[in-house]
Amino acid sequence: MGITQRARGVLRRRDPEATIPPGSRNVVFGPALPDESTVHLVLDLGLRIGEVQMASGAGASDVTATIIAVVTAYGLPHCEVDVIYTSITVSCYRGTEVPPITSLRVVRNRSIDYTRLADVEDLLRRITNNELSAPEAYAELDRITTAPHPFPRWVATVAWAGMAASLAVLLSGGQGGVMLPVTAAAATAVVDRIGRLLNRRALPFFFQQAVGGAVATSVAVTFYALGWLGNPQLAVAASIIVLLSGLTVVGSMQDAITGYNVTAAGRMAELALMSAGLIAGVVLALYIGVRIGGDTMAGLDATSIGRAQVLAPALSLSLQVLAGASTSACFALASYAPPRPLLIAGIGGAVAAGTHALLTLADVHTVLAGAVATTVVGFAGGIIARRLRIPTLVIAVSGVAPLLPGLATYRGLYELSVLGSPSGATTLMLAAAIGLALGAGVVLGEYLAQPVRTRLGRLERRISGPRLSGPLRPSKRRLD
User: Fold this and answer.
1) Cα–Cα distance between 473 and 462 in angstroms, integer?
2) Residues 124-130: what's their mean pLDDT?
3) Each residue's pLDDT tens digit, 198-209
4) How many CB atoms lie within 10 A of CB 132?
């Protein structure tokens, strides 16, 4: 900052009582700011960084802290940030004599790209360390957001298929044979390619979910009718988990816990709507399959759905750990994660699946077991991720993937639509409780990791709330 700007700042912060005549209205002078074009540039820079985080599923508190860190680094110390699920607004305060400068950006794109998120996190660190000027940072951000995905789209399709196969092994305990993971992988690959075509034609996501649920269920039911598959329920459940994995369970709970209720309500409304579309597709396919199949579908009984009994518990545990690691790694790969976050995500999935399996063997309720398992993942991820410069959000969301309640969702849908049993509503409520417990556990684990991380790295001075993305150091002013 030059001598002229410093002098202007001193004049702006003069005592109003010494310069304003008695009886005149009080005037509040704002802080010394750069020129107006620079202010607009900095506000847009902060908004675009926040947009990338929101599109990746980051919480509103993380986005708010990120934008305040960016604008403060470039000389805008008094900015107010308003984050809702579909838009971000930033207003730069300039005193009572001059209107504030306000910028708004609508968040339309929800495509998850963890490579882009990691690059933005690195850019944010350079900004807060005063290594880049505002124009340089803006140019770098433009390069990051316009860069293509790090690998072709078919690799993501293979990753989704691998995730479904891993989930099939996880749900069956390895007792479903070869056809179970093959069926789940084939159904998921077909769903992904069809969803890609529908997305190009701008079909609303509700109908995309319905088509995905119907296709996945139809493939499993057809293989069962042909005698190729003995457990169509588990194949459908694995495909349901893949379709649910991209939804913002973790972000919804983080926003609700940190007090951003409007954004939390928006995320939960989207979660409910997408789940409703999935339910519609699965129910339709089940109903048609049972009607057409007749006696060949008699064995499709919801009461027999469950984890296969394995004679050797140690073998079951090892399989679940490996399947959990593969599930999380495949999810991270499908979300375009770089190699190092990909490896850490796999470890997080192994920890989540192993912890959940141990608690299940100890007869702990499935809701509590899921909450404890994700708390462990959030705690470990909160400590490790920052030291390795990996977005904690990648580990959190990937670690939750193996535990999503796809099997409970399928049970509830089958009981309601095919068996006509009112117990299906109770099963669906259990699935919702599991999902909420998973999100809450991740947020709690990250919150508990902060004081430990503070002592390890001395990077924070106080607990500022759960942080899954954005700056680690808290802002100098409180984020109310």
Assistant:
1) 9
2) 89
3) 888 888 888 888
4) 18
In which region does residue 264 sit, left (phi positive, over 0), alpha (psi from -120 to 50) or beta (all else)? alpha
Identify whether residues 120 and 251 lie together within a single domain: no
Please state the length of the chain: 480
String of DSSP letters for 273-298: HHHHHHHHHHHHHHHHHHHHHGGGGT
- pLDDT for the residue 441: 84
pLDDT at 179: 83
- Name 138's Cβ contacts closer than 8 Å, sequence gap at least 6: 41, 44, 45
Which of 83, 103, 132 is the last residue before a domain boundary? 132
Q: What is the spatial distance between Cα 188 and Cα 169, in angstroms, rounded to a whole number?
A: 15
Separation CA 173–CA 49 (nearest Å): 42
Percentage of residues in the chain having pLDDT higher than 90 = 7
HSE of 120 in the Cβ direction (CA atoms, 13 Å)? 32
What are the structure tokens assigned to 171, written together?
């749900």
Residues 114, 190, single domain; the answer is: no
The pLDDT, as a whole number, for residue 299 is 53
49 in any annotated domain: yes
Among candidate residues 125, 130, 10, 113, the one with its CA nearest the CA of residue 53: 113
Whether residue 210 sits in one domain with residue 76 = no
* 221 and 122 within one domain: no
Q: Are 323 and 353 in contact (CB under 8 A)?
A: yes
16: in domain: no
- Does 345 share its domain with 432? yes
Is 19 a domain residue?
Answer: no
Tell me the residue range of the domain where 216 lies.
153-458
Highest mean pLDDT among 99-108, 400-409, 417-426, 462-471: 99-108
- Residue 88 pairs in a beta bridge with 83, 105
Quick one: 241 and 348 in the same domain?
yes
Asked if 298 and 435 sit in the same domain, the reply is yes
Residue 138 belongs to a domain: no
**Measured distance between the N- and C-terminal CA atoms of the chain, rounded to whole angstroms:** 29
**pLDDT single digits (tens) 325-376:** 998 899 889 888 888 888 888 888 898 888 888 888 888 888 898 889 888 8
Half-sphere exposure of 406 (CA within 13 A, CB side): 33
Number of domains, the chain: 2
**455: its two tokens:** 């002592």
Q: For all residues of the chain together, what is the average pLDDT?
A: 77
State both tokens at 466: 């759960």
Instruction: Tell me the C-alpha distance between 263 and 275, whole Å.
Output: 18
DSSP state of 148: P
* Strand order across the beta sheet in which 79-83 lies: 79-83, 87-92, 101-106
- 125 and 166 assigned to the same domain: no
Whether the predicted pLDDT of 314 surpasses 70: no
